[in-house]
Design brief:
heterodimer; A: 288 residues; Rossmann fold; 2 domains; seven-stranded mixed β-sheet; B: alpha+beta; Dna Ligase, domain 1; D-amino Acid Aminotransferase, Chain A, domain 1; six-stranded antiparallel β-sheet; 14 helices; elongated
């Protein structure tokens, strides 16, 4: 079953004619993603990568029946692109763009309250990959294979590394969701964990968090109430100093809030196994 | 961008927030002159961190001589790793009452939050912990900003109804820092009620969103040069690297923020101390790696370097070749351990070994190795 994205999900790419958009749309097609169109106002009416290019998301939805969209547009225009997709009736919006102003995202979140059915993944994220079926985003699919492990993560490369280690150990993945490294995000850990909880094919879950905010602590609270999944958590940034932004805009410890320690303790208290290094993730997942 | 107090006050004043009279002084003479003009002043160190009062960075001077002496002592002083480049001399206030007014992003709520408290002048995080009810909160709609009645409610809930007439416009002006400057933090603590009943900003903090810098080039032009940052961080910024200085001796390069942070953790776990955080971004192109190495080598404390890279689109053999040539071009002699994973990792490792670079089998193995080599 997997979550969010399946082999038959009709997908469009906003910014499909750009360099990044083109490259990753091709990769998405190579995996078998049902790419049905793209949006790029300046190239409307043309065909790119074998699919029609539209001027607006609304047109693309009307003509192709797309229900999911991947956004590869520059940061200054990305927030508007998200809202355009949501308003056009897209139910899964995956925004890869890094560097969107935080106030733009706060307005997007407020805007989305009127579209409770729409789900946003990201921004500043690697996207969603359902191995063997489809992907939206930039996760390198060659390190994945279908299986029972769900992954939800704030990081990009750390996720790829974990996915590769799982695959090497013979553990396939149901869906991999990169929720992004920004302070204001679409889906949270909690939202994604709830989706995995309802997916029969997912039996194991890896949660990769990092310093900053308290989404991990909230996820731990949800898991503490009981879960059928076998969960392993990993938190990166234990040794990060206070007040310094560690690469991701969202990865910052302020005062004693957002520390790795508090997140790890929350998971342990919820009965979740906490890996101290990424090597231990596979180890802990196969134990028991 | 984190502005200094006087810069934050200039911005707030331009939005109509009342501030006391003040002058910037780069020398003790300028401080003495400011005092001669303004009367008794507070001589305040200008650094982008809190806690300067406790560090001796704020002194009240009654006479020009006192102001000169205070500035003499404060300019050049080190406060939490920041050298004080200048002081701000501000007319001393007769304080009747201190209020807290702050605006920041509440990450959990994914919204802006305005906070007002009658318990000003204290560390607001401590107030929040000890007496959370003493802080009134408002989440303004991000499209239209706070409405009059919402601001009025905030004031009365904070128990400050008697000052409503002066506070209401002031709060709305502070909020203007969001639409006008993409503020992520704007704080006035204390907001001072003077003996004459005026309300002025005693201190001010303003931090703007780096991601929105493209909308505020003017702000950067006006203030960026005064902000003395860590020289390596500044240099790395010029080379488009995400770099944070730390105080250990092992230089770190990783691709991706999470992987890079994880690498710092591994080094600490292995008993070493990282000299920096350096994220070269998703790919691992040769010139980017070389840039990163060059910046790390500018740090004389570095005794060895650990590179942890996952090659997704960039192939491991490409990364390895780029690394070898970067090392040779820079004449790098320090111990270097590289952990490559992902596409063509075996080929990459073979190339490294061939050229005398130690490959790590896993991040953990690599961390242990570099710690051993730099001991």
């Amino acid at each position: 079953m997997a979550i969010l994205l399946h082999a038959d999900t009709p997908v469009i790419v906003q910014g499909i004619t750009g360099r990044e958009g083109t490259f990753h749309a091709q990769q998405m097609q190579a995996l078998g993603t049902r790419l049905v169109g793209g949006v790029s106002p300046s190239r409307a009416g043309t065909v790119h990568l074998g699919v029609p290019v539209f001027a607006t998301v609304a047109q693309a939805v009307r003509e192709t029946g797309a229900t999911a969209s991947g956004i590869f547009v520059p940061p200054a225009f990305a927030a508007d692109a998200i809202m355009e997709a949501v308003a056009a009736g897209i139910s899964l919006v995956v925004c890869i763009t890094e560097g969107i102003p935080i106030q733009d995202m706060i307005r997007v979140k407020d805007f989305m309250r009127c579209y409770p059915e729409a789900k946003l993944v990201g921004p500043n994220c690697p996207g969603v990959l359902t191995p063997g079926q489809a992907k939206i985003g930039i996760i390198p699919q060659r390190f994945s294979r279908p299986g029972p492990v769900g992954i939800v993560s704030r990081s990009g490369t750390l996720t790829y590394e974990t996915m590769a280690a799982l695959t090497a150990a013979g553990l396939g993945q149901s869906t991999i969701v990169g929720i992004g490294g920004d302070p204001v995000l679409g889906l949270s850990f909690t939202d994604v964990i709830r989706l995995f909880e309802c997916d029969d094919e997912t039996t194991h879950l890896v949660v990769i968090g990092e310093i900053g905010g308290s989404d991990e602590e909230r996820a731990a609270e949800v898991l503490a109430r009981g879960t059928r999944l076998q969960v392993v958590a990993f938190i990166s940034g234990r040794t990060a100093p206070e007040g310094k932004r560690m690469g991701h805009a969202g990865a910052i410890v302020s005062g004693n809030r957002g520390t790795a320690r508090s997140k790890e303790e929350a998971f342990r208290a919820a009965g979740v196994a906490v890996a101290e290094t990424t090597d231990q993730i596979v180890e802990l997942l196969t134990k028991r | 961008m984190k502005l200094l107090e006087y810069q934050a006050k200039e911005v707030l004043a331009s939005l109509g927030v009342p501030i006391p009279a003040g002058q910037v002084a780069r020398t003790p003479e300028e401080a003495a002159r400011a005092c001669a003009e303004l009367g008794p002043v507070a001589v305040k160190a200008q650094v982008p961190v809190g806690g300067r009062g406790k560090a001796g960075g704020v002194v009240v001077a009654r006479t020009p001589e006192e102001a000169r002496a205070a500035a003499e002592r404060i300019i050049g002083m080190d406060i939490k790793g920041h050298r004080v480049p200048l002081v701000y001399c501000e007319a001393a206030l007769e304080i009747e009452r201190e209020i807290y007014l702050g605006l920041t992003v509440d990450r959990d709520a994914r919204a802006n939050i305005l906070m007002l408290s009658a318990r000003g002048g204290m560390d607001i995080e401590q107030v929040a912990e000890e007496t959370p009810a003493a802080i009134a909160r408002l989440y303004p709609n991000p499209w239209r900003g706070p409405l009059d009645f919402e601001v009025n409610q905030l004031i009365w809930e904070a128990g400050l109804g008697e000052h409503a007439r002066e506070l209401a416009p002031l709060i709305k002006r502070l909020y203007r820092t969001v639409p006008e400057y993409d503020a992520v933090t704007a704080e006035i603590n204390p907001l001072v009620v003077t003996a004459e009943g005026r309300i002025v900003a005693g201190d001010a903090k303003l931090e703007t969103d780096e991601n929105a810098a493209f909308r505020h080039r003017d702000l950067e032009e006006r203030y960026a040069t005064t902000l003395e940052g860590d020289p390596l961080e500044v240099e790395a910024g010029r080379r488009n690297l995400t770099y944070v200085s730390l105080d250990g001796e092992i230089g770190i390069i990783g691709n991706g923020a999470g992987l890079c942070m994880g690498t710092l953790d591994l080094v600490a776990r292995a008993g070493g101390r990282a000299a920096n955080f350096c994220d070269i971004g998703g790919g691992a192109r040769a010139e980017v790696v070389e840039n990163a190495l060059a910046v790390i080598l500018m740090n004389p404390k570095v005794k060895g370097i650990l590179i942890n890279v996952f090659g997704g689109i960039t192939r491991g053999d490409e990364v390895a070749r780029g690394l070898v040539s970067a090392r040779d071009r820079l004449g790098l002699r320090l111990p270097l351990v590289v952990r490559l994973s992902g596409t063509n990792e075996e080929e990459g490792r073979a190339i490294l070994e061939e050229h005398g670079i130690v490959p790590g089998a896993s991040g953990w193995e690599a961390a242990k190795k570099i710690v051993e080599l730099t001991r």
